[in-house]
Specification:
- The protein has about 250 residues and is an alpha/beta fold.
- About 25% of the residues lie in helices and about 25% in strands.
- It is built from seven helices and 13 strands.
- It has helices at about 20-30, 35-40, 60-70, 90-100, 115-125, 145-155, 175-185, and strands spanning about 5-10, 30-35, 50-55, 75-80, 105-110, 125, 130-135, 160-165, 190-195, 205-210, 220-225, 230-235, 240-245.
- Strands 3-2-4-1-5 form a five-stranded parallel beta sheet, with helices on both faces. A five-stranded mixed beta sheet has the order 7-8-11-9-10, with helices on both faces.
- Helix 2 (about 35-40) links the parallel strand 2 and strand 3.
- Helix 3 packs across helix 4 (about 90-100).
- It starts with a strand and ends in a 10-residue tail after the last strand.
Length: about 250
């Protein structure tokens, strides 16, 4: 007997940004696996069970959830933001590929959510208005040398870059090093957006120039968006500053 597993994106933390599809998926599942702060955002019924685990136990969590679904249960794996962006959907797929053959017959659905870079971008204007990419600065699953290579390639190609997992107690130096790499290619006038806890009560959105960007202003709740040479800042007097990247591009780096 095989059940079903739904990977649910809960968005960046604002209840208004949880999609109706995600809300419906929560009502239909019986067992919920996830990082405790994400599970705490759910208002579950008495007949629904939550199983919390640490943030760095994604594969173990996926294995447990798939095993429960294989028993015939309706299971949900919850994720902040969008589950397909540096989150649980990839871990679940990895577990299915490496797991027993019966896991491949489990009904699987991935419910998208608003990811951090979209929430931050919406609060400041349209920095993702042209070509962009997302890079995680965490080197838990890839070498730092590869991260630097990707940063340099993206900046050299003129992409706006959204940085996830920019800094932590175990990795206090990496965002500063990333800025150093980018300063070698991008103008010092390139806008840099620090978007912390977008949409939540503790939200803080700040804009700096790359020449003045201070890595100490970020933490693990921050998504950092680094503009391209085309990205512009619009001052509006007493109204919030706008940052946008034009829909067209010249390729100029000046």
């Amino acid at each position: 007997m095989s059940g079903c597993l739904t990977v649910i994106g809960l968005g960046p933390g604002n209840a208004d940004q949880v999609t109706p599809e995600a809300i419906r998926a929560v009502t239909e599942a019986s067992f919920f696996y996830g990082y405790k702060p994400y599970l705490d955002r759910l208002e579950l019924r008495q007949d629904q069970t939550r199983i919390a685990s640490d943030n760095r136990e994604e594969l173990a969590r996926s294995n447990e959830a798939l095993a429960k679904a294989a028993e015939g249960h309706s299971v949900a794996v919850v994720s902040g933001g969008d589950p397909g962006v540096f989150a649980m959907a990839a871990a679940v797929c990895e577990a299915i590929e490496a797991g027993p053959p019966e896991w491949r017959s489990i009904e699987l659905a991935v419910v998208p959510g608003v990811t951090a870079m979209l929430a931050v971008a919406a609060r400041i204007g349209a920095p993702l208005g042209h070509d962009f990419c997302a890079i995680s600065l965490s080197d838990n699953l890839k070498p730092w040398e590869l991260i630097e290579l990707r940063l340099l390639a993206a900046a050299g190609a003129g992409f706006v870059i959204a940085l996830y997992n920019p800094i932590s107690k175990a990795r206090p130096w990496q965002l500063g090093r990333a800025f150093e790499c980018l300063k070698a290619i991008l103008p010092g006038t390139t806008p840099v957006i620090f978007g912390r806890a977008a949409g939540r009560p503790e939200e803080r959105i700040e804009v700096f120039l790359l020449a003045d960007a201070d890595a100490a202003k970020a933490d693990m709740s921050t998504c950092v968006i680094i503009g391209s040479p085309e990205t512009r800042i619009i001052k509006r007097g007493d109204k919030p500053t706008l940052v946008y990247t034009p829909r067209s591009a010249t390729g100029s780096r000046k």
